[in-house]
Amino acid sequence: MDYLQRLGAWAVANPRAVALLAFAMFVWVAFANCLPSKLFEDSTCTVLLDREGRLLCATIADDGQYRFPASGKVPERFEACICTYEDRYFRYHFGVNPVSVASALRTNYREGRIVRGASTITMQLARLMHKNAPRTFGNKLLEVLWAVRLEVGLSKDSILSLYAAHAPFGGNVVGLDAAAWRYYSTSAEELTWGQMAALCVLPNSPSIIYPGRNGERLRRKRDQLLHRLFVRSLLDSSELELALAEPLPEPAAALPQLAKHLYTRAIRDGKRGKTVTTTIDRRLQQLVEKVVAESATTIAAPNVSAIVASIRSGEVLAYVGNTPGLSSHGAYVDIPSSVRSSASVIKPFLYAAMLEDGLLLPNELVLDVPTKIGNFAPQNASRNFSGVVPASRALAQSLNVPIVRMLRVYGVKLFLDLLRAEGFTTFTRSADYYGLSLILGGGEISLWDLAGAYATLARTVVMYNPQQQGALRTVFPLHYVLKDSVPNAAQSLLGAGASYLTLQALRAVSRPVEEQGWQFFSSSRSVAWKTGTSFGGRDAWTVGVNPEYVIAVWAGNHDGSSVAGLSGVRTAAPIMFNLWSLLPHSQWFAAPVEDLERVPVCAVSGRPPSEACGEVDTVYAPAHRAIYAPCPYHRIVHLDSTGRWRVDASCYPASAILHRSWFILPPAAAWFYSRTHSRYDPLPPYLDGCAMDAGNRSMQFIYPRENAAVVSVPRDLDGQPSSVVFSLAHTDAQQIVYWHLDGEYVGMTSVFHQLALQPNEGKHELVVVDGDGQRASIRFTVRYRAK
After folding, report:
1. Predicted local confidence at residue 466, as pLDDT
2. Are residues 128 and 205 in the same domain?
3. Are 81 and 243 in contact (CB under 8 A)?
4. Can you state the percent helix, strand and coil of the chain, rounding each to 5?
5. Which distant-in-sequence residues (6+ apart) come within 8 Å of 678 by Cβ?
6. Buried b or exposed e, range 208-246, using 16+ CB within 10 angstroms
7. Is residue 155's pLDDT more than 50?
8. Is 248:216 a contact under the CB 8 Å cutoff?
9. pLDDT value at residue 497
10. How many distinct structural domains can be found in the chain?
11. Which terminal residue of the chain has fewer beta carbons within 10 Å of its beta carbon, N or C?
């Protein structure tokens, strides 16, 4: 208490001294603690690391230096080596080592010249901050002041980390991380004692001694450091012997250039000058790049891109943005970020959506006949028609006509909303803009979104939990930055049951020719996959999933021009299957049994059985208990006792009538179906004197189609209008059909009901009548094409 009283009295008696002391303390606090927010303004390389911290890609910084961003940590071997060589008491001084200063002054005075320095690591860091200013007394004093300031404002670990990131290592190599990769092609954490010692002697005189220059002096300095480490018991005798035997580093090598297009994508995403730890697996990336590069030499398409990602996490494991090694032809175009015609690869989402909404059963027969909706007349790739085909097969074989008819039932707007909800971000136009052609490539997608959407389809099955239905969020985009939180996760509009049945249908897709016999080899994979080829051979797509991975491949010209012979099956699919061989085996998806129910169906039509159906089967369908329409194709037909003629009770004894279930397709569908199904039986003809079933429609026009308003007639080489071939389907192949154009008889046909006519321009009516008196008619307008 007496001491405080005396101190107070002294302060009252010496106000100037108190003010001076307070000012000095203020200056000290401001100088020592108020460090600049950014100590170095130097540009740094953008560094891309894999998920284990291994270098994928880096290029030179804007100022021409190989300078990696500070990592915030240094290896223990670096601290041991650099402190032993440069600043043994680094952990104990306050920025300046008084003992070293006194020793340096004494030695330099005795020698009459500067032969020894006293710079600590902190003082060297201060000099690096000021761009290695000339070594004058004034600059040395500033170094001391800044060193003290750094020691007060930063931790020892931070100072050492900054020094490791900004120390020169010879030539244009700056920082330990850049030096480790440039000289040893490895990370700083993996450097041996010999390698670390060789690097730690470089900052002392980086312009005189560095790999490739003054090798013997470098070896001598390295070996001296290693012996000093041994004396300090930082390595034992065997470690010393091994370290001394290690070769010196070679001149700086080129940095790895893996995932180059992901590197440029990271820069576009605002990560320039930063270290980006990605989700990429470096070994897998190397293998995928090799497969893509080798495959690209065997196909016509110069540009190939591939993505491999995890289903559960959405992490991208390999990213090939364009053909590796390509020096021209759009080599720098990042294909996964580009938008291209979707071709057929979005068809599975329509199939799944219709299953989900109860509008379709998995193997329900859908019509595959000539179709024209307004001005839109879709064609199958084969230019053939099947009449009817199971919906699952229509998907597996990517038949255009049945899928377009399905979309017309489902609705373009609803489908567009679903695609957006499942992760496609590039459908920015209205439903009216896309129309029904949306399902055939009328919209554009990116390879990135495609892989993400298929991953979501598989994830919905893999992560299915009946206790979490309504809360499970499986829709989120792919991501390539490790430890990124999953953004904007949402619930899928597709249930696990519908998704599983869709994947089952895609599993049945026929493999490319190169994969024939795949199921007999140990390397075979259970993969659900889909291909697509855009109009004009511009884009070849293939995407495949199993419970663990998604692989998406695109091939074509970067500028969207056509490639002769390009197709998803022949061009992109073989590459995808080669990539599957790089991944571990996986079991097939477990069926989400709580989201599926068994539904009895007609074994032929795939629809719930009517009373007329014969054989009944059961199939799995999504468990939403929708009321499906019964089979429309089976009817009870009344036959005479021989089974050859149709009859009814008005013309034949009721007791003798045979009642048979008969599979009856619409006329056009029956005509095409019977061409590939020899066992399809047309309806028997009526027995003479028996009335016809007025409700039966046995004839249907194939061309012109019944809703076609205009028939466009081309001209011959001499300018004359060509003939128009009119076609008709009849359920009874033996019937004779009589043709009348505008009320005038023009001919008759049997078996193959086709007739060539040359109608004048204008409106016409064509009427056909068969031997039983049944009629069919069509109205149309003929227009001649200009030459």
Report:
1. 85
2. yes
3. no
4. 35, 20, 45
5. none
6. ebbbeeeeeebbebbbebbeebbeeebbeeebbeebbee
7. yes
8. no
9. 95
10. 3
11. N
pLDDT tens for each residue of 35-50? 666 778 889 999 999 9
Note the pLDDT of residue 112: 61
16 domain residue, yes or no? yes
In this prediction, residue 129 carries a pLDDT of: 84
Of 226, 245, 264, the residue that ends a domain is 245
Whether residues 94 and 227 fall in one domain: yes
Q: What is the pLDDT of residues 586-601, one digit of tens each?
A: 999 999 999 999 999 9
**Alpha carbons 529 and 461: distance in angstroms, whole number:** 15
Cis previous bond, 704, omega within 30: yes
Mark whether 78 and 197 lie in a shared domain.
yes
Cα gap 118→98, rounded to integer Å: 9
| CATH code for the domain in which residue 744 is found | 2.60.40.10
Give the range of the structural domain holding residue 192, as residue numbers without chain letter. Answer: 59-245
| Local structure of 614: helix, strand or coil | coil
Q: How many CA atoms lie within 13 A of 147 on its CB side?
A: 23
Backbone torsion region of residue 681, taken as left when φ is above 0, otherwise alpha when ψ lies between -120 and 50, otherwise beta: beta
**Cβ(66)–Cβ(172) under 8 Å?**
yes
pLDDT at residue 696, rounded to an integer:
57
Burial class (CB within 10 angstroms; exposed 0-12, middle 13-18, buried 19+) of 344: buried
Tokens standing for 404?
Answer: 């377009």
Q: Rounded to whole angstroms, how far apart are CA atoms 572 and 530?
A: 11
Please count the other Cβ atoms lying within 10 Å of the Cβ belonging to residue 38: 6
Cα 245 from Cα 53, distance rounded (Å): 28
Which residue did the predictor score with more confidence, 108 or 289?
289
CATH number at 69 reads 1.10.3810.10
Answer positive or negative: Cα dihedral of 390, 393, 395, 399. negative
Whether residue 127 sits in one domain with residue 7: no
Question: Using one digit for the tens of pLDDT, what is the confidence trace for 494-505?
Answer: 999 999 999 999
Residue 6 lies in a domain: yes
Structure tokens at 563: 């490639």
Whether residue 372 is contained in a domain is answered as: no
Residue 733 included in any domain: yes
User: Do 175 and 233 belong to one domain?
Assistant: yes
Are both 64 and 28 inside the same structural domain?
no
